[in-house]
Amino acid sequence: xxxxxxxxxxxxxxxxxxxxxxxxxxxxxxxxxxxxxxxxxxxxxxxxxxxxxxxxxxxxxxxxxxxxxxxxxxxxxxxxxxxxxxxxxxxxxxxxxxxxxxxxxxxxxxxxxxxxxxxxxxxxxxxxxxxxxxxxxxxxxxxxxxxxxxxxxxxxxxxxxxxxxxxxxxxxxxxxxxxxxxxx
Length: 184
Hints:
Oligomer: single chain
Largest sheet: 6 strands, antiparallel, barrel
Radius of gyration: 28 Å
Number of domains: 2
Shape: rod-shaped
Number of helices: 6
Distance between the termini: 56 Å
Low-confidence stretches: 60-89
Helix content: 25-40%
Order of helices and strands: HHHHHHEEEEEE
Structural class: alpha+beta
Strand order of the largest sheet: 1-2-3-6-5-4
Number of strands: 6
C-alpha cells in the first residue's frame, strides 16, 4: 500500500509543478493504472509499465521485459528459492546482474544426473581417427585424447562423470580414466 501512496503522491506533486509527463496530454493515468504498475514486482517490468502510461516509446530490451513481465520472477518462490531448473535458468539469464554475460559466463548448473553407469556393448577402434565406445544403454561416446592406450573390453562396467569445463570422464573399474565426448 505504501508504494501506491508514494506513486500517487509523486504523480500529484509532479502535476502541480508542471513536470508531469502527462501535463501535455489530455488524459492523465488513473489511480487504478498507477496501482497496477506499483503492484509489479520486477523492477524492469514496473518501469516499463510507468513508461507505457507516460506514452514513452520503449527500446527493444525493455519491450522484452514488458512482453514477459514475470520472466524475472519465474525462478523464485516466496522463500526466494528456485521453483524448477528451467525456470531458474530463465531467471538467471534475464536477471539485471547478468546483463551482457553469455550463458557460459553465468555458470548455470548442469541439468541431469552427475554420473551414469553402463556396460560397454561394442568398441569401434578406428586407428586413423578416434575410438568410439557404444554402451548397453544405446549411448555412443568417443575418446577425445588421441593416442590413448585402450584398455577397454566388451562387457566392462564404466562410470561416466561430469568433469571440469563441461567435459566428461569415463572411469573403468580398474580406475583407468578417459576423457570422452557424447556422440549419440
